[in-house]
Amino acid sequence: MKIMDAKISDAKANPTLSADNFAIPQAMLASAAKPAAPDKTPFQWIIRRQFAGFYFDSDAMYTDDGDSLKLVDVGPNISQVRGGTHNTIFIATDKYLIAVESPNDDGQSVQSIDMAKKRYPGKRVRYLILTHHHVDHIGGMHAYAAEGAAIVVGKGNAEYFRKVLARPEKLNPDAPKKPFTAEVIEVDGKWSVNDGGREVDAYAIENPHAASFLFPFVPDAKLGVVTDCMFRALLCPPIRW
What we know:
single chain; 6 helices; 12 strands; elongated
């Protein structure tokens, strides 16, 4: 079946084109929708979509249209935010929560933190472990820092993260409303905490994806959080040993 025939009889490389060729008719301009107010336009989200390719053009922001983020138990007192392109893991200890990854932006982090608080009442997020510095894994870290969470990062990254967390977020519609001073913990080799008998570790590992990479592990659940070090997919599930 023939769709189209095209015959080119003349071609010129890089011709000079009149600006009139790109002029928008005044009638069309008059009837066009006006730009959204700057404080209603999610500039940060647009930038991050371009950078990482999520979540296309869904008005739901973090999920497919009509869907929503959900908190799913994946182990004993361990839950995972699902439904979007990138996930957060919450690990409950006796007195507090440890989060792994703060993907996309602060809007997703706020939703994730709210779900975790309902699932584990009375426990705040004490630590946020960031496996590596790529924007699709750290974009929502301000919300955790504002909750008082210490940010756990790989060796050599602490100064960078302190600078980023100290900068104003004037174009971020979901930026924390209250001021905060973030505590940043730099891991050289292994970081470990133990609360109420639950140990949570973060190991520095060599890998081809990113420098200063951390691998979080929960020994009693035999559960590790695998991100881009082993699979180059955007969905990063926990795995068991």
